[in-house]
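Usage

Read records sequentially. Each one opens with the input sequence:
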Amino acid sequence: MSSIRHIVLINWKKDASPQQIEEWIRYCDRIPNECPMVSNWTSGTCVLAPVPDKPSTHDFGIMFDLGSNEDWIAYLSHPYPESVYSEGLKVIDLDRTASANMPLA
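and closes with the structure output:
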């Protein structure tokens, strides 16, 4: 496989405070500085749908690219993303979160 695009769609736990969420986002957004294999990092609040009866299904999204399967393996074993995940367990509703990997041409 060539380059990989990783996409994560997140929903927050109902009891997570705005401050906890903001702190986690700041921590998470350091991933590209801590992990040299990560490129094209984008994260942000999902846009509410313009039609009220078709609301957005997620609160927050993250997208980034990795150059190869080897980079993906290195990312998965890197301690910084592991700590971001562990901290995220405090604020992220894992039952309402999705992630996917797509090959880039």
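Summary fields computed downstream for this record:
- The radius of gyration is 14 Å.
- The beta strands are 4-10, 38-45, 60-66, 98-103.
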